[in-house]
Design a protein that fits this description.
Elements lengths: L5 E5 L20 E2 L2 E2 H11 L4 E6 L4 H6 L4 H9 L3 H12 L2 E6 L8 H5 L9 E5 L2 E5 L3 H12 L2 E7 L9 E7 L4 E7 L10 E9 L1 H9 L10 H10 L4 E5 L3 E5 L3 H12 L6 H10 L1
Helix pairs in contact: 3-4, 7-8
Length: 286
């Protein structure tokens, strides 16, 4: 069984809920304290053993591509100033993985990036990730998923329990076997009454060529979009096994709107030795 060494990251979204901040800056480059969202995502993947990272972009994502390139002028200035720790930190960003960029083509929807990058992941399993989803955990969630895959061979999607009154905002999974977490379906943004569980799926998946082949034939779904969960549902209906994976010792943090972006900043800042005391003092007096 081939190991998971590649990841596709969907970063072609416009981030309209975060305007005007995203007018000229990709939403994935917005900071979580002092690191852009996308860097935290990449660090998680690399910690899980991912070597090749394929970012599916569009015309206005050049700042994101530049972030993972070498910055010779900046490195020179840091070296001249004797800021060697910062120099090492900046160089490490470009050397974390092999970065590949491809433009998104096709209909709107979160299934399209997989088809855009399909030729780069032929005949091997891969991770599929949304570039504005973070998972803050003691052990990289990518590593948790990949370790599970290497042991069982199970295709899977990350899930997290959400309040019952919020299930209509997410894709909600239906569990066939609670012990193994095998799925019998996923419903995209169900009504509160129709939701089969409170487990919401998010942008961490391990997929393979079977999913890609089904996705090629999948019709546009809700909102006239191409949904990855529709392909997963069809895979399950055809007899394929698919599993849910809950985060251990951590949590999923979305960053797609002002409140959740702020919350993610507070969560990460509260773990920083140089910031947590100052943050607590400030919030207490706010």
């Amino acid at each position: 069984m081939k190991k998971v060494r590649k990841a596709i990251i969907a970063v072609a979204g416009s981030g309209t809920r975060l305007l005007p901040a995203t007018k000229s800056m990709p939403k994935e480059m917005l900071p979580i304290v002092d690191k852009p969202i996308i860097q935290l995502v990449v660090e998680e993947l690399v910690a899980g053993g991912i070597e090749d990272i394929i970012l599916v972009t569009k015309w206005d994502k050049k700042p994101l591509e530049d972030h993972f390139d070498y910055s010779w002028a900046l490195e020179h200035d840091l070296a001249e100033s004797g800021k060697m720790a910062k120099l090492k930190e900046i160089r490490k960003i470009s050397e974390m993985a092999n970065f590949i960029y491809i433009r998104q083509k096709g209909p709107y929807g979160n299934g399209t990036p997989v088809l855009s990058a399909a030729s780069l992941v032929q005949d091997e399993p891969f991770m599929y990730v949304w570039g504005d989803d973070l998972v803050k955990s003691k052990t990289s969630f990518a590593k948790q998923m990949i370790d599970d895959y290497n042991e069982t061979g199970h295709l899977m999607i990350g899930v997290q329990k959400v309040p019952r009154n919020q299930v209509d905002r997410y894709g909600i999974v239906s569990i066939k076997d609670r012990k193994t977490m095998q799925l019998d379906g996923i419903i995209e943004k169900p009504s509160i009454k129709e939701a089969p569980s409170q487990l919401a799926d998010f942008g961490r998946m391990i997929l393979n060529q079977d999913i890609i082949e089904i996705l090629k034939k999948t019709r546009l779904g809700k909102g006239n979009e191409l949904w990855i969960v529709d392909a997963i549902r069809d895979y399950i209906k055809a007899g394929g096994e698919f599993y849910a994976k809950e985060v251990q010792d951590g949590e999923w943090l979305t960053t797609g709107d002002p409140w959740n972006l702020l919350k993610a900043n507070l969560e990460y800042a509260s773990d920083r030795k140089d910031l947590k005391t100052l943050l607590k003092r400030y919030l207490k007096n706010l």
